[in-house]
Amino acid sequence: MKKQKHVVVIGGGASGIVAAISAKRNGADVTLLERNSRVGKKILATGNGRCNLTNINSDINFYNGQNPKFIYSTFGQFGIQETLSFFEKLGIEYKVEANGKVFPMSDQSSSVLDVLLYELNHLGVTIITDCYVTELKKNKRTFLVKSSDNKTFLCDSVVFATGGKSMPSSGSDGSGYELIKKLNHTIVPVFPSLVQLILQCDFLKRIDGVKFVGRADLIVNKKSCSTDRGDILFTSYGISGPPILQLSRKAGEFLQNNKECYIRLSILDTMTEDEIQKRLERRFEDNSYKTIFESMIGLVNKRLIPVILLEANISNQNRLASTLTKLEKKQIASLLKKWDFQIIGTKDWNNSQATAGGVNTNEVYSDTLESKKVEGLFFSGEVLDIDGQCGGFNLQWAWSSGMLAGRNAATL
Ligand SMILES: Cc1cc2nc3c(=O)[nH]c(=O)nc-3n(C[C@H](O)[C@H](O)[C@H](O)COP(=O)(O)OP(=O)(O)OC[C@H]3O[C@@H](n4cnc5c(N)ncnc54)[C@H](O)[C@@H]3O)c2cc1C
């Protein structure tokens, strides 16, 4: 008879929890180590407290990293259908919302964590909290895991699921990278993803809080390299909103490479520039007795009008609309269609929802998630150099990779 394996899972986030369940279901004796006083803290914050647990459209196009194809094998073995059925069996009824986003019927991320905790307990996984792992070594066939309070754990296999650096208050502070470097793994440089952008702009304080539904393009070398549409929000430092978070991954990458990049906003994105121009002509004609400022009320958010006019080099907004020159009208139309702002940074880890970069996937077998450098060491979740777009893709990666890493840690 094969000897029962002892598996230690380091990190009790989404991925580590599922890895522990998977390893236990596959016959191992499992210990889950978590530095916080409870496991799954970040799960509670996901999807604005509703947990966007996956996306029915998940495929490689929604993932980034030096080698996004790395996910193929994992998703082939445990994909969306398997994930949905895993959660259904645990008690989570789900619903599919706009753009394929899947949420629990309860609209509560706490219910996702609850059912995972029930399963951990039901299976008899040993959970040790307040356990900050500071050392990981391998002696011959046995791993030695040490925590900051000098607890030591010996085991046959390890699942390394310490997450990235996003939302450090949830426990993922990047300490995992330092641990794993000591085992000769390399880390693809990390930067915040799914994060707000900081813009070079003098008048942001005046439009802080202004929201509109429109389009945003990421511009590099005068060309759009990515675009998204939805609720966009000006803030005192720059810009936020779902389309901005989606573009932030690429923007962060350009900034890392010292490339100049811009965000191009289209406030009236459903009209062509020509149509906007014609609409403006008519408005200014109909409202010729009003000031320029007054004549634009009702077309765009009122707080945007003074700054748009300033940008169009119209300093006196109290002139009558009838005095606008052709060039001035053209400039206003152009700004409403494509208004460029230089991106000078992203907000920090406290604000980001995902980590770009991480453990180099070239050093990990894609079909088993085992390290190519240390036999018996498996990786799962955000600690790897894989990150997804907004919309349930990151949790899907956490569940799929956790399931596979846990199973293989128990059986290989
Ligand atoms: C605000 C917010 C909202 C999000 N919403 C969504 C969403 O709706 N849908 C979606 O798909 N994704 C969402 N994400 C992303 C998603 O939550 C993460 O990609 C996912 O949780 C990663 O899981 P993980 O287990 O790999 O890492 P983590 O969840 O970060 O877990 C890592 C765990 O390891 C522990 N740990 C770290 N170092 C050590 C150590 N040295 N010793 C012991 N323990 C350690 C940490 O305390 C932590 O509990 C969101 C992220 C944030 C920040």
Name the structural class.
alpha+beta
Helix content range? 25-40%
Count of separate structural domains: 2
Bound molecules: flavin-adenine dinucleotide
CATH superfamily name of the largest domain? Answer: FAD/NAD(P)-binding domain
β-strand percent reads 25-35%
Strand order of the largest sheet: 13-16-15-14-17-18
Q: Per CATH, what is the topology of the largest domain?
A: FAD/NAD(P)-binding domain
In angstroms, what separates the terminal alpha carbons?
15 Å
General form: elongated
Oligomeric form of this entry? single chain
Query: How many helices does DSSP assign?
Result: 13
Regions with little confidence, pLDDT below 50 for 5+ residues: none
Radius of gyration: 25 Å
The description of the largest β-sheet is: 6 strands, antiparallel, barrel
Task: Explain the overall architecture.
The protein has 412 residues and is α+β, with helices and mostly antiparallel strands. The model has no long low-confidence stretch (mean pLDDT 97). It has two domains: 6-193 and 354-411, FAD/NAD(P)-binding domain (3-Layer(bba) Sandwich); 196-346, no CATH class. It is elongated, with a radius of gyration of 25 Å. The strands form six sheets. A six-stranded antiparallel beta barrel has the order 13-16-15-14-17-18. It has a five-stranded parallel sheet with strand order 7-2-1-11-20, covered by helices on one side. A three-stranded antiparallel sheet has the order 3-6-5. Helix 1 (14-25) packs parallel to helix 13 and helix 3 crosses helix 13. The chain is built from 13 helices and 21 strands. Residues 10-16, 33-36, 41-42, 45-47, 51-52, 132-133, 161-163, 166-167, 170-172, 175-176, 353-354, 381-382, 392-395, 398 line the site of flavin-adenine dinucleotide.
